[in-house]
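Cross-check.
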Amino acid sequence: MKNYWLYPFSHNVWERFRKSQEKIIKVDYRRIIIAKKKIKQGDCFICFLTGISRFIATLEVVNESSINDINGLNKIEENDFYKEIKTNILYSLTPDTSLSVRNFFNQISIFENNKSINTWTNFVKEPPVYINETDGRAISEAIKHAATNTDKSIDERIKWCFFSNILTYD
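Predicted model, tokenized:
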């Protein structure tokens, strides 16, 4: 069974990630225990851009061994440790063609207890954050559809998400 995880990127960090040779997600040391126990090869990261709250890509974990070696922590700055998880980009959009989180409000469970579209980001303050398979598949399929149907307008691609079966998995 594949797990899905939300992972936020700022615009600048996303551009550096997209252009880099190795597609590496960095997990803060405080989240390593979760990463070590749960994130596995084949899992997917659903990436979104902070600031504009838009889903931009689906990544697949390709190297489980990079998660399991807790002794191999890397250091960015004083008291700032992280673990690297190698990924591949499955589907990617541009900031202009990315899918607004607003289009998923009231459609997927991560928004259920939010009274406002703006409060949902509290959910992802310490990434990666696990999301259920139904939500993960729905968002991933919407990103896939948008990435592979570039001849259609953004509005047409968004409508497809809600008038197809991708948001109604059993």
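The domain at 4-167 is CATH 3.10.590.10 (ph1033 like fold). The longest strand covers residues 80-92. Passed to J.P. for a second look.
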